[in-house]
Amino acid sequence: MIWTNDPNRLMLVAASAAAYGLVCLLPYLRARRKRLAAVRSKAEAEAATSPGWIVAYASQTGNAEELASQTVATLRLAGIPAQLSELSDLHAEDLQRAERVLFLVSTYGEGDAPDAGAAFAGRLMTTQLPLPQLHYAVLALGDSAYQQFCGFGRALDGWLQAQGAHSLFPRIDVDRSADAAIGQWRQQLSHLAGTSDAPDWSAPAYQPWTLSARRLLNPGSAGAPVYHLELAPPGPLPDWQSGDLVQISAPSEADRPREYSIASIPADGRAHLLVRLHSHADGSHGVASGWLTQQAQVGQMVSLRLRAHRRFRLEDNAGRRLILVGNGSGIAGLRGHLRARAQAGQGGNWLLFGERNSAHDFHYREELQALRQAGLLEFDMAWSRDGGAARYVQDLLPAHADKLRSWVADGAAIYVCGSLDGMAAGVDAALANVLGHAALDALAAAGRYRRDVY
How confident is the model at residue 453 (pLDDT cuts 50, 70, 90)? Predict the structure, then answer.
């Protein structure tokens, strides 16, 4: 072998050696990838033939989903294979093959299935499906303020019993995420799994945020007062996404937190809320709304924690056009999305909004008009006390049917935020009439029809 001190020739030799090594390495890497893929495929095939446990959730604001994730973590800690699934992703064959399914479901409005469970309810709970091999349990989340408390969980439990399924333990009903009821579920789960070494199920602690600003948005309105609130955290600004919520614990009812849509993004430096003052027939105010808008002083501490609301985040819809529909204080959740889009310089936003009077109830008028002038927003308004053909926001949809169909055909996503009574059902019916029931169901299944209603 002839050695040389010529730098150019040495570099050539080194390059040749590297190229040879790469040529040898690539087949090895390809073979390794194939072996690993084969191992994964075998494991997936074995998992498919073994039903294991299924933990199915139907969540509207994220509580059931979070508890379902904690349930899966507990099972896996005990060495039990468990599959996490949104309820509407389950089909008849899944239930017929499974031996154990744990259902964690919320209720939408007066006894209806939440959006994440509507397809399951329509597809399976209207049929007969013998399930004599199935053992199950139901955690039903709800709010006792509604007549049909935990209505969907109760209906699901009844349907499963009618199909011959066997309950592992009696259904547990949870009122406003009550710790005691969730503790019962965890205790039963630990007994089934044979372990008490479960992951920490405690929710994030409340923190003392400062009420930094408050102003009345609708002076002179015939409706109830609506206030814009700004809250600052005690330390570094935490992260959240548009569509997320806050939970606020009022001093007189610390065990019954209230949830509000966040009307801002982290770049704003504070969490913005819209709070409508609720008044009872006797003239007294709602506990949380009265405290936040009338009793708490600017500069006072407010017990608050952030809550991810994955079903109302933009996520896969971030690159789509957005059709934003709402009324009243529902502009809060929609404003969060608009501010996120404006920060990104992203247009393709169409707001359809309804309130009482244009003169008094056009919340964030200047801000919305500025977005329109910048080419980032189109909006149409319905005023119930100003007359005109479109008096409510649901009346705007048939009036703009062609545009609605065009935007949806172009891939737009629909977000609805506001009151459950009247608006949500009216908007849903109007969308179904314009787009067709099957098309609307398909949008919901694809995550392109999302709602935050209360």
Answer: confident
CA distance 217 to 223: 11
- Rounded to 10 degrees, the C-alpha dihedral 307/308/310/315 comes to 150
Residue 407 neighbours by CB distance under 10 Å = 20
What is the pTM (predicted TM-score) of this model? 0.80
Give dist(CA 432, CA 440) in Å, integer: 6
Cα→Cα distances 140→45, 102, 204, Å: 33, 11, 22
Looking at residue 223, its amino acid is: G
Kindly write down the DSSP assignment for every residue of 275-321, as one continuous string. Answer: EEPPB-TTSPBPHHHHIIIIISPTT-EEEEEEE--GGGS-GGGTTS-
Structure tokens that stand for 213 in this block: 């600003």
Question: Could you tell me if 159 and 130 are in contact, meaning their C-beta atoms sit under 8 angstroms apart?
Answer: no
Contacts of 109 by beta carbon, 8 Å cutoff, 6+ apart: 146, 420, 424, 453
According to the model, what pLDDT value does residue 260 have?
Answer: 96
Collapsed DSSP state (helix, strand, coil) of residue 245: strand
pLDDT for the residue 156: 98
Confidence at residue 259, expressed as pLDDT on a 0 to 100 scale: 92
Convert the pLDDT of each residue in 324-351 to its tens digit. 999 999 999 999 999 999 999 999 999 9
